[in-house]
């Protein structure tokens, strides 16, 4: 997604609206991601000063993940907001704690890497199909969300396993 500084500076109100769809191939790069649909970006570029402008963007995409608990594929809508400052004057480009101003070369700004970064920050670190996912049975491997499982899962701390055979009458 590219924004022309020339068009922005020529706009009467110093405002430029752009809508674009971008396709990213992040399968294999993001764990548990099985598919990523088109990424829809609505960007608003606004001239603040003659050599400084801000871009605000709304990002939306639909992704398919594998649930880390039950291994079921599910869809999730990802949404992100983006706000970045840009300039075409090298003296204005700064990287401070308060605000980062990016330098634009050749009168065109490529928003694609900024959109990609904002989207990547929205991916869940451990995707779960639903809040109350019961996962897979550790004994038989059935999906406990869809299949009945009557396995007895006995959880004993291995450090206390020796006490399992001890009876009160012994001591």
UniProtKB/TrEMBL annotation:
InterPro entries: YceD. This is DUF177 domain-containing protein. It holds the Pfam family YceD.
């Amino acid at each position: 997604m590219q924004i022309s500084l020339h068009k922005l500076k020529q706009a009467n109100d110093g405002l430029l609206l752009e809508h674009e769809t971008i396709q990213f191939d992040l399968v294999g790069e993001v764990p548990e991601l099985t598919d990523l649909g088109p990424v829809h970006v609505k960007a608003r570029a606004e001239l603040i000063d003659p050599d400084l402008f801000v871009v605000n963007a709304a990002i939306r995409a639909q992704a398919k993940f594998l649930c880390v608990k039950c291994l079921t594929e599910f869809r999730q809508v990802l949404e992100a907001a983006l706000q970045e400052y840009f300039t075409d004057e090298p003296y204005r480009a700064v990287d401070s704690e308060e605000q980062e101003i990016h330098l634009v070369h050749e009168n065109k700004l490529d928003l694609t890497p900024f959109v990609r970064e904002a989207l990547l920050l929205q991916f869940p670190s451990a995707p779960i199909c639903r809040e109350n996912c019961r996962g897979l049975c550790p004994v038989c491997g059935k999906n406990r969300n869809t299949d009945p499982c009557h396995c007895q899962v006995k959880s004993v701390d291995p450090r206390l396993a020796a006490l399992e055979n001890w009876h009160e009458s012994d001591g």
